[in-house]
Amino acid sequence: MRLGGSLKMKNVNFSEELQWPGSKKFNALAGELSKELKHVFSPWKAAVQVLGFAPGSVIANYHLYITKNDSTISTTNAKVMLTQHLDNHNHSLGHLIVELGSIQFYERTALALPEKQKKSWTFRQGLGLGIGLSLVLTAILATLFPLYRHTCRSNCSPHSIHYNVYENELPVETTNPGPSCSSATNPLPVALQKTILIEESSCSSI
């Protein structure tokens, strides 16, 4: 469940920097308020996201993200819990003085993670997927490459290399023994060094 809330802090002066999420003042005030609200709603195991600040002195708008399944969770009970806490602590959240009449809560039906958490989760998913695919591809290549080498070496075992030598358009076959696979050709007799076409069985060196 997600509950929206707002409250007014009487002892904080508004400045333009509080309008910009990520600024030093915004982060400092949002961090303190989130910490105190999280403590108040700890029975519900609530996470807090400060949405923004508005002048007057400073009005804070925030969301409570509640994952605990509890029948006591409601906007009415949220207001009671916060009000009781403020009554017991001189109307303060830490050093922030809160105006009791300004406390409001409203229910949001959809549970959504804060944007920062969504980006972090999306990044981790993508990174995990990329690493997983890389490992699978590496395993496939590691399996197939030795088979390829074995097959080629089997086809390229020591053998005699046969040359079909064409001289005066008449084929003459000669044989040169080859101890291993090689792209190099063995020399031919000098008498046959004319216009020669060599047909050699192809075999690449690994």
Fold and architecture overview:
- The chain is built from three helices and eight strands; from the N terminus they run βαββαβββαββ.
- It has two domains: 2-116, SEA domain (Alpha-Beta Plaits), CATH 3.30.70; 154-206, no CATH class.
- A four-stranded antiparallel sheet has the order 2-3-1-6, with helices on one face.
- The protein is 35% helix and 26% strand.
- It is α+β, with helices and mostly antiparallel strands.
- It comes from Eptatretus burgeri.
- This is SEA domain-containing protein.
- Keywords: Membrane, Transmembrane, Transmembrane helix.
Structure described in brief:
This protein is 35% helix and 26% strand. The protein has helices at 24-40, 75-88, 115-155, and strands at 2-9, 46-55, 58-66, 92-93, 96-97, 104-108, 159-167, 170-178. The strands form 3 sheets. A 4-stranded antiparallel β-sheet has the order 2-3-1-6, with helices on one face. A two-stranded antiparallel sheet has the order 4-5. Strands 7-8 form a two-stranded antiparallel ribbon.
Give a quick set of tags describing it:
206 residues; alpha+beta; Alpha-Beta Plaits; 2 domains; 4-stranded antiparallel beta sheet; two-stranded antiparallel ribbon; 3 helices; 35% helix; 26% strand; elongated; disordered C terminus; SEA domain-containing protein; membrane
